Amino acid sequence: MLQLLSVLTLFISVVAAGEPSTSAAEQHLDLLPLSHFRQYLRINTAHPNPDYASAVNFLTGLADSIPGLRSQVLYFTSPPNKPLLLLTWLGSNPTLPSVLLNSHLDSVPAEPDKWSHPPFSAHRSADGKIFARGAQDDKCIGIQYLEAIRAIKINSPEFTPLRNIHISFVPDEEIGGFEGMAKFTGSQEFKELNVGFVLDEGQASPTDEFRVFYADRVPWHMVIKAAGIPGHGSKMYENSAMENLMKSVEVISKFREAQFDKVKAGLAANSEVISANPVYLKAGTPSPTGFVMNMQPSEAEAGFDIRMPPTADPESMRKRIAEEWAPSWRNMTFEIVEKGTLRDFMGRPLMTPASDSNPWWSVLKEAISKTGGRLAKPEILSSTTDARFMREKGIPTFGFSPMKNTPILLHDHNEFLKDTVFLEGIKVYESIIKALSSFEEKSSLN
Fold this sequence. Notes:
Blueprint: H1 2-16, H2 24-41, H3 52-64, E1 69-75, E2 83-89, E3 98-104, E4 123-124, E5 129-131, H4 139-155, E6 165-170, H5 181-185, H6 188-193, E7 195-200, E8 212-216, E9 218-227, E10 231-232, H7 241-264, E11 275-283, E12 286-287, E13 290-291, E14 295-296, E15 299-308, H8 314-325, E16 332-338, H9 359-370, E17 379-381, H10 387-392, E18 397-400, E19 416-418, H11 419-438
Parallel strand pairs: 3-6, 3-7, 7-18, 8-17
Antiparallel strand pairs: 1-2, 2-6, 4-5, 5-19, 8-18, 9-15, 9-16, 10-14, 11-15, 12-13
Helix pairs in contact: 1-2, 2-4, 4-11, 9-11
C-alpha cells in the first residue's frame, strides 16, 4: 500500500509539473532507488566509529517494504555492537545450495576538507554524480541487491526463485573482516544456509566492460629489525644496525623491482605479482632538535606491506625472508602478520575457476550478457575483500560491482557514482539474481 501511495503521489506531482503522465511510473522506478541509495550514504559508517545501528535499522526497514524478504540481525562479538544483517528470499527448493549476495556496512574515513562536497551528504550534481564515502565501496551494491529484488517482484510477479537467495550486510570489512565475515562463515548460522555460490564486491571499470574478480591478494605486514653496536658517527665498521637494515632494504627493493618489471613488460598484471612496498623506517637517537647526528644507533627497523597472490608459494616466501631479507647471521629479526591464508581448507589456492568448467561462471556470464553487458578478462583483485573467507570454505565466489565507464575512486577523495550507472546496475542484478536462483545444477563445486 505504501508503494502504491508513493507512486500515486509522484504521478500527481509529475502531472502538476506539466510532464507527460506516461513517464510517471518510469520516473518513480528511478527516483525511489536513488533516494534509498542516498539515504544509506548519509549514514556515517566510517571508521573508527561506524554507526552500524542506524544502517541496520534503515536497511531492515527497506527490506520490510519488499514482500517475501525475511530479515534477522546476528551478533558474533561481545559486547554485541557489530550487527550483521541477513536477508532471505526463500526458494521453491531450499534443499539446493543457496546463493549469497554480500556487501559490507562500513567505510573508510574521509577528510571533509579534501572533498568538494561533504562526504556524507550524498550530494547529487547537475550531471548526476552522487558524491559520498561508500558510493563505490560498497553501499551501491547493497541497495542494488534490494532494488533488483523489488523490481523482479514488480515486473515478474509470477517469478519464484528455485534456490534460496540470501543477502548479507556485514561489519568491519574495511579493517580486515575478522569480527564480521570471518566470524559469520565460521558460525552454525552460516553452515545452515548451505551456501553454494557467492557474489561479493568488485571494483569500478573505466572502460565499457564490467570487471570480475576470481581471487584476492592477501596482505602480509612485515617488520624487520636490525641490531648492532652503537658508535660515534664518524666511525666506519661492519654490522652496524643501520648498515644491516639498509642491506635488507636494498635486497627487498631489488625483488620489488624484478616483480614490477614483469608488470611494466606486460607479462603480468599488478595483482598477479608479489608486491613489497616500504611503509616506514624507524631509527636514530632523538634529540630536542631532531636526532643525534654524531651517534650511530644500536637498533633500526622498517615496515613493509607485502601482497601475496594465491599463485604464490607462502613457504617459499617465508624462506626468502628468513634467509635473504632478514637473516639472523646479520643480526636481523623479523615478524610477519599474515592477514589471511592463501589456501582453502583442502590446501588449494584461493581461486574460483572463471571458465566454463565452473557452471556458476557460465550462468553469471550469460546473465550479464542478456543485459547487453560484457565482462572484461577475469582478474585477481590487487587488494583484499571478505570474499577470501568464503573461498577458504571452498565456496565459489566472484567479486563483481556493475560500474562501467567509471573512474576507480574507492578510498579516494570525492568518491562518486553516477546515477545512470547505479540504475543500470539494478537491471544487471535483476538478470543475475533470476539466473542464479533458477540454476538447477546441484553441484556447488565444494
